[in-house]
Amino acid sequence: MLKRDVKQAIKRTVRRVRRKLPQAIKPNWADLLKSDQATWRKFRENAQNGPLVLIATSTGGHRAVSPIESLLAVALTLRGANVHILLCDRFLPACSQAVNIEFWSQTEFVKHGPKSLCDDCFYAGLAVFEPLELPIHTYSEWVTPEEQLSALNLSCSVPQTEIQNFRLDGLKVGEHALAGALKFFAKGSLDDEPYAEAVLRRYLHASLLTVYAVQNLLQEYPFTSSCFNHGIYVPQGLISEVLHRHNVRVTTWNPAYRKHCFIFSQGDTYHHTLMSEPTSLWENIPWTASLETKLMNYLKSRWYGTQDWIWFHEKPKDNLAAISQEIGLDFTRPTIGLLTNVIWDAQLHYPANAFPTMLEWIIQTVQYFIKRPDLQLVIRVHPAEIRGWLPSRQFVADEIRKAFPELPANIVVIPPESQISTYAVMMQCDSVIIYGTKTGVELSSLGIPIIVAGEAWIRNKGITQDAQTAAEYFTILERLPLQKSLDEATTHRARLYAYHFFFRRMIPLSVMKPVTGWPPYEVQLTQLDELLPGRDPGLDVICDGILQGSDFIYKDEELYRVTDE
Question: In 3D, which of 535, 539, 533, 546 has the Cα closest to residue 512?
């Protein structure tokens, strides 16, 4: 718990923050629990001897995170878990909340770190979690002065070229520090960044402090399981590393695409687990006509985002004649699609990738198609480069232009700002090449052959052509054009996986309601018993997974009651 001598001062500050930042401190659990205080107190008391669970929120001011993690803290307590919260108390010299757009200049961050964000972040987090009256731990209380000095010295002494691969007692500290720095710059590499080394060392310093804090916390509290967002970057990636080392069950989560829904994963970030989960989890789903209709209707809605709370075009252009004229592409000729990702996002190590980076894959692919004038290549740059919550500072189109000042007529680039529908264009393609985009899940369900060169979630599913090496990749390209759609059996398999991905791995929470603005959801409930076991199937799946290690799979096919005619 927080030290007694600072509790009253913090409470006064929290009340002040509530008045100053009303949008940053939802949900207001004091109001939500007002009519159930006696019941909530009883559940807390009963849970004190239950299994220890760590909600390692850390960045309490992350408005998309605190609603979910505070909701889970309540729901797990109602199921008998002794829940503790971990918050950063302005202690870390860098974190996932600190990105370039949050500062007047990069110099400000280099000199002062995230200090300009820290007060609002910490006190907003306290404002959310403190009304729950659950134990709250802070980073500073779990790192000794000697460890603080050690972390500072190490972060200054490791050669810059060795930071990426630096490990502390086997923990991949450097990989997560680099991912954090890349996210800060919103770029895929640190090249040409004058403050690259200074920022990278800040993230290394923060990574080391995180390791020390979580290790010491675990010495005092033998947590059996944990839950927190992302599972990558700083500090979340390091929390995951340390918890694994101490055999604490790790659950990570992210918002999903469908409204009301979230993706939870056991043991690792979903960037990894969605590629490695066994196909036996979904390939024997009892398929019906109603399930197929449900899936196909949803996939069509993806063109316009009507069922999602994450989308990138309000009014996408889908008229093929107009698209053809705008980009100068003749869809009567064999056309190959290529879909990019945001360069900086989730820069982790994926051993199955055919190329070391997405950018190198793009450049080598363009070089190949320059020698294939018989084929058209249409490159659709991901709209999130400019429309995502963190706009990129490194653009795929610019990198292509640097490498190829003039492209031949058979290669077309659709920039991220274009309103052209990705789906309308890709539906006209002989086949589509991807690196990491989820769109491969959708397009393969429509019978379009997919070639995978990177960490796409459709990899390893027996649906796509997966390249393990660059040589294998170019061997696959030599077979183009394929001139045929996926066969019926493969298309059916793709639809099974798409249904699993969109309706079983994306778990709905009935109390998370869509709202305008950011985040696109908030907790809405009237009574505490709405969160009790048996009231919300999605919440039960999530809590069972955290407490028991069961799969985070929502059996939608069993709950979907539409019968075939």
Answer: 539
H or E stretch covering 120: helix 115-129
Bridge partners of residue 252, in order along the sequence: 228, 265
User: How far apart (Å, rounded) are the C-alpha atoms in residues 138 and 89?
Assistant: 6
Residue whose token pair is 């810059």: 160
Say how far apart CA 76 and CA 130 lie, in whole Å: 16
Longest Cα separation, the chain: 75
**Which CATH architecture best describes the domain 279-506?**
3-Layer(aba) Sandwich (3.40)
Which of 404, 389, 503 lies closest to 445 in space, CA to CA? Answer: 503
List the one residue out of 180, 184, 245 whose CA is nearest residue 217: 245
Residue 349 pLDDT class (50, 70, 90 cuts): low
Q: Which two tokens stand for residue 280?
A: 């036996």
Over the stretch 151-191, which tens digit does the pLDDT of each residue have? Answer: 999 999 999 999 999 999 999 999 999 999 999 999 988 99
CA 211 to chain centroid = 22
- Any bridge partners for residue 413, and if so which? 379
Q: For residues 298 and 446, what is the distance between their CA atoms, to the nearest angstrom? A: 12
Q: Which residues pair with 54 in a beta bridge?
A: 84, 226
Report domain extents, the chain.
4-255+509-558, 279-506
Q: d(Cα 138, Cα 126) in Å, to the nearest integer?
A: 11
Q: Is the pTM of this model over 0.90?
A: yes
Q: What is the mean pLDDT of the chain?
A: 92
Q: 36: which DSSP letter?
A: G
